[in-house]
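Q: I have 306 residues here and want to know how they pack in 3D. Can you give me a structure?
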Amino acid sequence: MERKKLIIIISIIVAVLVVVISSFIILFINKKDNTTSNQESSNQESSINQVRKQVSVDYNVDILEYNFDENNKTAVVTGIKDSISSDEEQNIKEVVIPDVVIKDKNNYKVTSMKACIFFDLENLTDVSIPSEFELPESAFKKCTSLKNIIIPYGVTKIPQYCFAYCSNLSEVNLPDSVTEIGISAFTNCTALKKVRLPENLEVIGDNLFEACKNLDSINIPNSVTKICNSAFAWCSKLEKVQLPDSVAQIGNSCFRNCSSLTEIVIPENVQKMGLRVFEKCNDNLTITVKGKYKIPEKGWEKSWNF
């Protein structure tokens, strides 16, 4: 009898120990997973807002031509060197614009470049620019093979048509230092699927993502107050758009021909709504207007929801 009681007691103790040890193991795994998740999130944010490691290039071996300011020790990219033949120019696959160019033992900080230098370079696939660099209009327009762009923290503006018609560009991560994006900056980037917009952006300009046919969703930051004309027109795969409460104005034809869009909520702070915002969208599109409906006299066009 005593032996039977002893066996029962031992069995209970073993069972309790198993439960306690299992609980500790589960807690350890969860803690490790949370730590890993936080590290991944931190690393992702860090990679988006990274400052590129400084790149220095000797002018004599660089393919780029510069205009040098001797007083301020700065340099502006003005083109590709004449020593590069037309065939060699068209076969350029990678452009790394340096932070510093060295000429005659002097260091010059590279601050900007002239417009259209790389326009229509069909074989260009990779681009990297310095922090605090000023991009020009149409900088890489019609670079149809461009796949990878590194825009580091410090860049404040993406000018109009900067990456327009870059039909192989599939992902864009814009750092939070960017506060302005020009009209049509990414128009007709037909392979573009993933976009990360900066947290301080206030205006999504005209035709910004027009005809980005593979863009299926986008997260609009809470800082945005205005979405302009045709900003997402002809984004035929766009399924999900969440408009933040900060949005006060939506332009003409903003979501025209977004044939995959099935549901959208208009925030109550929207004071102006343009013409034919949802023209030729999905017949089953459900539009929910939060707050009191705005009559045309108050800023909403009569045919806003056609």
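Q: Anything worth noting?
A: Helices lie at 2-48, 86-90. Residues 33 and 39 are 10 Å apart (CA to CA).
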